[in-house]
Carbon storage regulator (Pseudomonas chlororaphis), 59 residues
Amino acid sequence: MLVLSCNINKSIRLNDDITVTVLAVDREQVKLRISTPGTVPVFRREIYMKIKKGDNLKR
C-alpha cells in the first residue's frame, strides 16, 4: 500500500487516464475529484461491495 500526502488543489496521477485531485479538507471529510475516461466507473467502496454482492441499490 502507498500512502500519499497532497495539498488542496493538487493532484495525484494514477496512470495516463486517471487523476485524483484534493478539492477540500474539513475536519473528518475530504472532497476529491476523480477524473477518468467515461468507460471507467468510480464508486465508493461500500457501494462497490453492494454491487459485487448483487444487492439492489435505491437511487
About this structure: The radius of gyration is 14 Å. The first strand starts at residue 11 and ends at 13.
